[in-house]
Amino acid sequence: MDDASNQTHALVNIYLVDAPGDWDQVYLDIQRVEVFVESGNSAGTQEWIPLDYLPLSNIVNVSALVNDSRLILGRGELPLGKISKVKLVFGDGQYLVQDNEARSLQFADQEDKAYEHEVNYPLEGGMSYDLIMDIDLSRSVGINPSDENSFLFTPFMRVFEKTNNTKITGEVSPLDAKPYVYAVLGEDTLATLTDSLGNFTFIGLEAGEYQVYIEPRAPYLDSLTTVFTKLDSTSQMEPIILQIPQNPEE
Fold it and tell me: Domain DUF4382: where (predicted)?
């Protein structure tokens, strides 16, 4: 931004990350992202502002966004004031892959094709803001009760600012365990998967005492570890080596 723009605008970037569900892959048709800005000028204007949509394709494999991988949806210079809503606009091209077979994924409610999430982010001149949209696929996707071969999509997300850098990272082996990893704080549960190297990351966390639960594929045994987090810090877990149950002696 030039000097004049620094005084009257802020740069906003919006990213997408994923908390995966029990499917091989999930593809979402993302058309654009918009923000609702309540301007701080004397006119007190309020308006939806679309941000430049940056991905190469509208069809996004969101289940690949693990271990702090993120997809930038859009960025733009916004007038000063505050962002009170973020809107993610979808198309009709959603589908998922299960057991190597593509399955239909339809909106349970057509109004969710323009999904809105309330936020509260004041904007200051010359500042840059990174907003993260974390979609929880395990809560967003369910079997269609009228057709067991198709699925329904109801977006379930959390939105947070990247300035909260509190995170938990870890590594799980063997690689063929391919576990789900859960971070539990009170009644709140976040989920993720490991990447191809066995690494995982939870971002945008509150400070507190988390129970990190590793749920691998058979025949590996589950694992549970307590992790303490602090604001603006990374809690690096010790490498987790999953065990296979020993057969009882005959």
Answer: 10-155
